[in-house]
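Design job #97: recover the sequence.
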């Protein structure tokens, strides 16, 4: 065996962002060789993973070359063309999740059609190509309405809340295929992270509350405070049902709205997810280890929490790019805070890392996480 031969199974992750970077930490402990496909050598994961291959995820030839020698192929984003995923599977590669599942995270209209077919709670929706269709939908369901790009869009991008026909006409100028949904007057946003293996084992993490600001998640509270146990169980049941019905292999994040009338499914992601970063420090099995276990069809790990309360706060880039000079204060102020940086250039509003705090009291733990996040990104006290 040569010095460069893999010792354990090889998982190829298409994409070299922070999700791949954090997956590497779990791969090391599991003895899994992680390979990533990066567009450039300075991407987040490419900076720390030895087996980084350069290529274009939109090119089938690059994907085929990347997949050779991998025991499983997975993704840190949903942008690989569906037909390329099907081609890889036809070549005999274990692609997880497969195209028939992943398309539901790539195409919001396909997702809505499938979820409503088996009774998952969804808002009213329709495809919309012009103002006439949007106006007809609004006449039935009322203004405001929500216009969404059917493909692409994240962190609030590709979503328009339209209160008038004029605002809808402006959104329709985006030039991308859109769908229209009824506006959901929600009380708060929740997320359920589940994992499913190829042979059908499934587990669910506790339901969390996600706090959004300008369409970007800034905070995750685990478990969701004050959530009725029956509603929490129902959210987990819905998420596991979706994973089963869609044939998901790996992680599935189900973003939901909590409303006065019950739960409503908003979005899906089939990969490690921002709402699950708290699991690195706050769960018996991190979402990244769980994803590797699932795509390799290994027994899944315990999703139980390792502390009563966990709060994760995202670090969003500000005007001062030098976060490291503020390390000392945060570490000295609270030795229990865990810092996670993604190796990304600081830009205003960009997710560049996160902090996690654990403890027994929500208000105290939340204040600790907020203090660290605000001070690291702005140098100001909260």
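Job complete. Output follows.
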């Amino acid at each position: 065996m040569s010095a460069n031969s893999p010792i354990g199974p090889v998982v190829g992750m298409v994409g070299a962002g922070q999700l791949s970077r954090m997956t590497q930490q779990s791969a090391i402990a599991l003895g899994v060789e992680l390979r990533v496909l990066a567009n450039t050598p300075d991407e987040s994961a490419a900076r720390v993973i030895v087996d980084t291959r350069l290529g274009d995820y939109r090119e089938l030839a690059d994907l085929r070359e990347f997949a050779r020698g991998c025991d499983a192929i997975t993704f840190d984003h949903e942008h690989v063309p569906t037909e390329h995923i099907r081609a890889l599977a036809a070549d005999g590669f274990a692609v997880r999740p497969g195209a028939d599942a992943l398309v539901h995270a790539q195409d919001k209209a396909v997702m809505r059609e499938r979820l409503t077919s088996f009774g998952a709670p969804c808002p009213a929706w329709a495809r919309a190509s012009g103002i006439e269709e949007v106006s007809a939908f609004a006449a039935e369901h009322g203004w405001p309405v929500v216009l969404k790009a059917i493909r692409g869009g994240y962190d609030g991008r590709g979503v328009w809340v339209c209160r008038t026909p004029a605002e809808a006409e402006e959104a329709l100028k985006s030039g991308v295929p859109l769908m229209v949904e009824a506006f959901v007057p929600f009380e708060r946003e929740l997320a359920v992270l589940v994992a499913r293996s190829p042979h059908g084992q499934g587990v669910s993490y506790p339901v969390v509350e996600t706090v959004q600001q300008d369409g970007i998640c800034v905070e995750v509270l685990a478990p969701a405070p004050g959530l009725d146990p029956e509603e929490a169980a129902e959210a987990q049941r819905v998420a596991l049902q979706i994973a089963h019905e869609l044939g998901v292999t790996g992680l599935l994040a189900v973003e939901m709205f909590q409303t006065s009338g019950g739960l409503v499914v908003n979005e899906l992601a089939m990969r490690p997810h921002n709402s699950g970063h708290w699991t690195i420090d706050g769960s018996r099995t991190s979402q990244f280890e769980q994803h590797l276990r699932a795509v390799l069809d290994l027994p899944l790990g315990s999703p139980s929490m390792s502390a009563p309360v966990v709060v994760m706060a995202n670090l969003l880039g500000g005007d001062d790019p030098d976060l490291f000079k503020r390390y000392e204060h945060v570490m000295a102020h609270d030795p229990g805070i865990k810092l996670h940086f993604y190796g990304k250039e600081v830009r205003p509003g960009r997710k560049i890392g996160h902090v996690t705090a654990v403890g027994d009291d929500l208000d105290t733990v939340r204040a600790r996480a907020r203090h660290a996040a605000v001070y690291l990104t702005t140098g100001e006290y909260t």
